[in-house]
Design goal:
Structural class: mainly alpha
Shape: rod-shaped
Number of helices: 8
Helix content: over 70%
Strand content: under 5%
Order of helices and strands: HHHHHHHH
Largest sheet: none
Radius of gyration: 38 Å
Length: 195
């Protein structure tokens, strides 16, 4: 794993002072990486459990922290802080990235749900509601207009078929339909609920 030889390899068999271990870690000594992992992985894991609340995610966080630390060890400056503090900083950024990703996923899902066409169930519900509203208004029409409109829209008859069924002249059928539609349009415009 190291890409550079260590000037002073660490002793993995016994306790190693932090400064020696940190110097070896920065120099790319794999033994120093193992020591750093043994010393600080528990601390990172506890942070993961506290922030993420999931054992497996906490374990993954430990892996990510040490991989990132190993790859970025050239950027670690012992004069600016301890290795433990640096690892905690990496862990905090990864946790923040995790929650930012979740938030982004949630926003994408909400946007997708808003832009998605209504489901068949929604369309069915809307149709039922529209039918009830239209049916209520049709029932309030004068009898001749109501009969003609129902034959036209519910029985799907043509104007000629309505004239033949009701015995009304074709022009009268057309007039009743036109007046009924004008009346309904006015009612819905007043209610602000044009279907």
């Amino acid at each position: 794993m190291p890409d550079r030889p260590s000037a002073s390899p660490v002793n993995t068999a016994g306790p190693e002072p932090d400064d020696v271990m940190v110097s070896a870690f920065v120099a790319g000594d794999e033994g120093a990486l193992k020591l750093a992992f043994d010393r600080y992985s528990g601390m990172v894991f506890r942070i993961g459990m506290l922030r993420l609340g999931d054992y497996h995610q906490a374990e993954e966080l430990v892996q990510q922290v040490f991989v990132r630390a190993w790859k970025g060890r050239d950027g670690f400056d012992p004069a600016r802080g301890s290795l433990a503090a640096w690892l905690l900083g990496i862990a905090r950024r990864l946790v923040a990235d995790h929650y930012a990703g979740l938030d982004k996923d949630r926003r994408v899902m909400v946007a997708a749900q808003r832009s998605a066409p209504p489901t068949a169930e929604d369309r069915t519900t809307d149709r039922v509601v529209d039918s009830v509203i239209v049916g209520d208004q049709v029932n309030r029409l004068p009898e001749q207009q109501r009969i003609v409109l129902r034959l036209a829209f519910y029985s799907d008859l043509s104007h000629s078929e309505i004239a033949e069924t009701t015995g009304m002249p074709l022009g009268t059928v057309k007039s009743h339909i036109r007046r009924a539609l004008i009346h309904l349009r006015k009612v819905w415009e007043v209610d602000g609920a044009t279907p």
